[in-house]
Specification:
about 20% strand, about 70 residues, alpha+beta
């Protein structure tokens, strides 16, 4: 069985906004691409340590963090 990856951003469950950023976990290599994505709000840094309970998404409007990373640990 193959897994389909959905690259669309979800809507915030708290405020309904589609202005959400993917949360980037780990120790990133800071380059021009990462800096651009941080500046345009398409990603936010989540921290260097990741667990199964950490969220996937951050709402840029209300600050809600949501989603889960369970699919990474399957």
């Amino acid at each position: 069985m193959s897994k389909v990856i959905d690259n669309t951003s979800p809507k915030c469950p708290q405020c309904g906004s589609s202005n959400v950023a993917e949360i980037f976990w780990g120790m990133p290599a800071f380059d021009e691409d990462l800096e651009r994505k941080l500046n345009d709000g398409s990603i936010v840094l989540g921290g260097c340590c990741m667990s199964q309970a950490d969220p996937d998404w951050h709402c840029n409007d209300c600050g809600c963090r949501f989603g889960d990373r369970l699919d990474v640990f399957e």
